[in-house]
Amino acid sequence: MKLKLLLATLFLSLFHLLAAQQKNKTENVILITLDGFRWQEVFNGADSSFMRQQAYLKDPNIKRKYWRDDRDERRKALLPFFWNTLVTQGQLYGNRTLGSKVNVTNNQLFSYPGYSEILTGFADNERIHSHDKIYNPNTPVLEYLDNQPAFKGKVAAFTSWDVFPFIINDKRSGLYVSTGVAEVKGAKLTEAEKMLNKMVLNLPNPLGDIRLDAFTFYYGLEYLKKNKPRVLYFAFDETDDFAHQGEYAAYLNSANYTDKFISELWTYLQSDPKYKNKTTVIITSDHGRGDDAETWKDHGQGVPIADQIWLAVIGPDTPPLGEIKGDSQLHQNQIASTLGALLGIEYKNEKKPGAPISSIVYK
After folding, report:
1. Contact 135, 124 (CB under 8 A)
2. Are strands 231-236 and 155-159 parallel, antiparallel or unpaired?
3. pTM > 0.90: yes or no
4. What is the domain partition of the chain in residue ranges?
């Protein structure tokens, strides 16, 4: 019996080793995060019990837009790209009612530690425990890749929250990070970039210093078309901001049009020979939230279930397994090494990052 177990273990290790040595089809990766977007809405759609929570950003059509009696139709109404395209062509993890679990490993359960874990592959509870604008002492996978000759100058980030330059540590790495309510600079701006620059400083913004996600997306899309990066990070923020305000309609609307952004991005990727059938998109969240009428607004150590997140992947090296069912456990700290593995790079850090997710990388 022990011999059979040993042989099975050796065979599995050899299989993964050979698979890892095969050249992936993925040449580019797009990483996308939706801040604090709950797995409950991803898999169940809108929660009718929260729909009355609309104080200043009211939407009288919220029920018509997002409520369906059937769960499958309800989640399609909220996230049509997720459920009509991504699930048919990729993988979606985190439906805990079906046994699929994805959890953070940091004990802070808020944004800076979550993003640091996503990007560095491990939790740093000793040094990363606030939202202070302190440069991340750890090396994110974005910086690690940019230090590889094949990726130098081909890694960038577009973020709504102005703490990201510190999380990514653009000062040390020199990575291009577009963030906050600010114009993009450059000698050869496109007409779209010029128009976005006019709008970003003049449109009313209920989020103050946080850039509206539409600007983050369209600035990033123009950069993608113009500069052809191999690794691009989009960090959207509105879902978390509106949730903290208890604005459920705005929270749902933000998730819905972010899904539309991702659909538009995927359509472009599949139309450009540089990216078509050569690009993997990874989508996730930095933390979860509570599950009742009050705690859904919050996260952090006072909301223990805020460690529950989700993960979606679509790309040429990822088998189309759809919505993952059955008992399984993934962690946020595996995303960085999975991103590297898709590109044929073994990501290393000061501490050992979580292992690549074999079901995503290996056929």
Report:
1. no
2. parallel
3. yes
4. 26-361
**Residue with the two structure tokens 């499958």:** 72
Alpha carbons 359 and 263: distance in angstroms, whole number? 23
Q: Exposed e or buried b for every residue in 102-118, given b needs 16+ CB within 10 A?
A: bbbbbebbbbbbbbbbb
In what helix (H) or strand (E) does residue 339 lie, and over which residues does it extend?
A: helix 335-342
pLDDT value, residue 362 = 74
* Cβ count near 339 (within 10 Å): 30
- Joined together, the tokens standing for residue 137 give 């002492």
- Res. 15: pLDDT tops 60: no
Q: What is the mean pLDDT of residues 292-310?
A: 98
Residue 341 has pLDDT above 90, yes or no: yes
Quickly list H helices, 71-186. Answer: 71-78, 80-81, 87-89, 111-120, 141-146, 164-168, 170-173
**What is the assigned CATH class of domain 26-361?**
alpha beta
Residues recorded for the chain: 363
